[in-house]
Design brief:
Blueprint: H1 14-26, H2 35-43, E1 55-59, H3 68-78, E2 82-86, H4 87-92, E3 102-106, H5 109-117, E4 124-126, H6 133-144, E5 148-151, H7 157-170, E6 173-174, H8 179-191, E7 197-198, H9 212-219, E8 221-222, H10 229-236
Parallel strand pairs: 3-4, 3-5, 5-6
Antiparallel strand pairs: 1-2, 1-4, 7-8
Helix pairs in contact: 8-9
C-alpha cells in the first residue's frame, strides 16, 4: 500500500489534504470546505470514501422532515435512545430542527449514556474526544438550520483546546465551563474523597474565560466530565 497504512488517506490528516488539493487543481475546482465536498472530490478520481465506519453519537434529535431517517431519529428520541449516525446517514438526512433549538455538546460518551438513562429532554451531541469529521459534519448541518449550541468538556489542557475550537467554530456558549465551575468542582471532588488527577502539559487559555487557565494552573487538578455529571443531567432534564 502506497501510504504504508490502511488509514493513510483518512480525512483530517495532512496527506489527504495534500492529495485533495492536487485533485482540485487538476480539475480546476475549488478546494472544498466540508466533508461532503471532500467526498465528492475523491469521486472525481474514482475513489469511493468509506461513509459507514465513522459515526457521531447523538441523543434527542427531532428533525421535522418526513423521511424514514428523520422519523427513526424522532422515534429514538421518544424512547430516550441514543443514535450513532454515519456520514451516509448525514448525507441523506434532512436535519431541519425548529429555529433556535439549543443543542448541547459534550466530550464524553458517558454523558450521553447517562442522559438516556435519565430520560433527559434536551438534545445532545458527543464529540467522543477530539471531534472527528463526521462530528463536525453533523454540527455544521445543525448550525446551518439555525440551531444554537452549548459546550461542555474536560477540565484539562486538551479539553480546553477542544472547547476553544468548538466554541469559536459555532459561537457556542460555554456550559458549566467557567473558572468558578472548575473551582467548585475541584473543592467538591476533594471533599468527597475522589482521587485527584494531576494536570499535566502546557496551559491553554480559555477564549471564553481568561480566569480559567490561571485557576487550573493554581490548583493543578484535571477534572473529567464525569465529575460534573449530576449538574449536566440537571440542565439536560430541564430541572435548572
Amino acid at each position: 500500500m502506497a501510504t504504508g497504512s490502511a488509514h493513510g488517506l483518512d480525512d483530517g490528516t495532512w496527506l489527504p489534504r495534500l492529495v485533495q488539493r492536487g485533485i482540485a487543481l487538476a480539475h480546476g475546482t475549488e478546494f472544498p470546505g466540508d466533508a461532503a465536498g471532500r467526498r465528492a472530490l475523491w469521486r472525481l478520481v474514482s475513489v469511493t470514501p468509506d461513509e459507514v465506519s465513522s459515526t457521531v453519537l447523538a441523543y434527542g434529535l427531532r428533525p421535522v422532515g418526513g423521511g424514514w431517517r428523520e422519523q427513526a431519529l424522532r422515534e429514538r428520541a421518544d424512547h430516550h435512545a441514543e443514535a450513532h449516525l454515519t456520514s451516509r446517514d448525514l448525507h441523506d438526512l434532512q436535519l431541519q430542527l425548529p429555529a433556535g433549538t439549543v443543542i448541547h455538546i459534550c466530550e464524553n460518551p458517558r454523558v450521553v449514556e447517562a442522559a438516556a438513562d435519565a430520560a433527559c429532554v434536551h438534545a445532545l451531541v458527543c464529540t467522543s474526544g477530539s471531534a472527528a469529521t463526521v462530528v463536525l459534519a453533523l454540527l455544521d448541518a445543525l448550525a446551518a438550520t439555525g440551531c444554537r449550541f452549548a459546550y461542555h468538556g474536560d477540565f484539562d489542557w486538551p479539553g480546553i483546546a477542544l472547547a476553544n475550537r468548538i466554541i469559536r467554530r459555532y459561537g457556542a456558549q460555554p456550559w458549566r465551563m467557567g473558572a468558578e465551575d472548575y473551582e467548585h468542582l475541584t473543592a467538591r471532588s476533594q471533599a468527597e474523597g475522589i482521587p485527584q488527577l494531576p494536570l499535566d502539559g502546557q496551559p491553554v487559555s480559555a477564549s471564553w474565560d481568561p480566569a480559567l487557565a490561571p485557576a487550573m494552573t493554581a490548583l493543578g487538578v484535571a477534572l473529567h466530565e464525569e465529575v460534573t455529571l449530576d449538574l449536566l443531567l440537571d440542565d439536560l432534564s430541564g430541572r435548572t
